[in-house]
Structure formats: C-alpha cells, structure tokens
Amino acid sequence: MTRARKIYFLAIAAICIFGVYGSLYLQNLYLLRVAILAVITAILALSVDILVGYTGQISLGQAGFFGIGAYVMGILNTNFHLPFWISLVFAILFTGFVGFVLGLPTTKLKGHFLGIATMGFGVIVNGVLNNWTSVTGGPNGIRGIETPYFFSISLEYGNYFLGFALASLFVVILLIFLIVHSPIGRAWRCLRQDEITAYVAGINVYKYKLIAFMLSGGIAGYAGSLFAGYMTFISPETFDLNQSISLITTVIMGGSGTLLGPLLGTAILSFVNEWLRNFSELRLVIYGFILVTMITLLPEGIYPFFKRKILFFFTSKKKKRSIETEGSNGKDVVNE
Q1: For the purposes of burial, counting CB atoms within 10 Å of the CB of 314, is it exposed (0-12), middle (13-18) or buried (19 or more)?
Q2: How many CB atoms lie within 10 A of CB 15?
Q3: Boundary (domain end) residue, out of 217, 240, 263
Q4: Rounded to whole angstroms, how far apart are CA atoms 245 and 61?
Q5: What pTM does this model have?
Q6: Using one digit for the tens of pLDDT, what is the confidence trace for 253-296?
Q7: Are 229 and 317 contained in the same domain?
C-alpha cells in the first residue's frame, strides 16, 4: 500500500471514528433520523458503485437487493422469531446468492441491454413484494421488526443506532478498499476500461463480473437489514425503480469509481432533499434542476473535480518552488 493510499484510508477512518463519537451528542431527533437514513443510503450507494464505478456495469435494480435484504430480515425476525444478528447474516448471504443468480445471465449483456435486464429484476422484486401477501404482507408491509441489541445495549435510541450505522459504513468502506486494491480490484478496473482487452489479457471476465454482482447484492442486503432494523416497519413502496435511479444519480454526481464520491453525493443529496421539503410543490422541480446543473457542470462528479483542482494547486506550487530554486541556483553560478 502506497503512502498516499494509507493517508487516504486513515482520513476516512478518522472521519468515521469522529462521526461515531459525535453521534452520541446529537440531540435533535429530526437530524438524527436524517443522518441515520443518509448513512444507510451511503452503504447502499457504495454497493451500486461496485457495479457502476469499478466494473462499468449498469445496474437499475439495486432497490431489488435492498428490498430483499429488508424483507428477509423482517420475515425471519417476525415470522420465525430469529434474533436480529442471525437474521442479518441470512439476509446478507441470501442477497449475495440472488446477486450470483442474477449475474449468471446478465453478465453476458452490455450497456443498455444490461440496464434493461437489471431494471426488470427490480420491477419483478417490487411486484413480488406487493402481491405475495401471505409472506410479505403485500402493500401493508411488515411491522414489529426487532431493533437490534449490541452487548445488552439497545440500539433503539437514535444516537446509538447512528453510531452503529457509522461503524457499519466504516466496515463496508474497509472491505471495498481492500478488494479494490487486490487482484480482484485490478481485474475490475481492466473490465471497466475494455472487456475485450481484459479477455485477451487472460482475465476471466465472467468470473469477476459474478463476484461484483454477489458483493454488490450482499452489501445492498446489509443496508436493507439495517433499514428494517431501524424503521421496524417496511413496505414495497420504498423499494421501487425510483430508488434505483436515485442511487445511480447519487453515485454519478458524487463521483463513480471512488470511495468518497458516493459518500459525498449521499450527504449532499440527502440534506438538500430535506431542505427542499420547505418548497412543497416546487420541490421536485428544484431538485431536478439542481441534479441537471451539477451533472452538466461536473460530469466527472463532485469529488474527482475538487480532487483534481486541489492536486493541480499543490503540484503547481511545487513546480513554482522548483523553478524558483533552479533560478536562484543559476544566479549563484553566474555570480561565481
């Protein structure tokens, strides 16, 4: 691991640690709720980034994985009375398996064909959640999901759950960071650039796409379980196509193919969306205008744009210093 990567990761770790500590002192219940949902959305956005950002695969069905994770948690917890943590493990494993099954046919597709296939998956999942009333409760959803306990500490209190959610976010960031800087991550980046070149280079394209779908599905299922544990109530309307489109927008606006991009995009859009509630009927119009403006002006994303500007600023100052140093050395030689 290079020095720059260590600094990059330590900075993210410090932010998460201070966030966990600071969450214990946040007293505003409204801000607590917004922050918790934003952190869960950030985990979900990172799962989208694995497919969209690192492997270059279009996924419009991420809300399906999100919903499956939430409903597996809800069904096991309320119908079979399994503890939260055991239900969480089953939810992650099951959504990862669903990602594997979805990847079997769809990894052979590209571009808009892949997008249509994954969108169909999301629509099918939402239809099942709405119509399989004997299991999912239909439009009425599932109520009474257990709030988790952590070593006899109830996470029912918003401050504790926010700390737990931030710790979960850090674990997901660490997992993705390690995978991205492993041979799997290098294969993903090669796939994103050119699948044919990757195939000629000896990379098993099919295998690494399946790994991406499985990991993305598992992380989205984890986010769904957290959502179900926090809300204690879930219904199909939360896991529709609009959710999938919103997630892709968040990732692209923040900066796909990066760890900080989806986090930054989630933070901005979550709090902007809450602020726009003051504008009632004009909220969606203003929200759409902001999205179009940001994507038009910053097509690479907010984080890559500012990263490039900051690097340019420091490198230009460094070059300026080196030129001044060489100039002063030249004067000294002339004087001698």
Answers
A1: exposed
A2: 16
A3: 240
A4: 9
A5: 0.89
A6: 899 988 889 999 999 888 888 888 877 777 778 878 878 888 78
A7: no
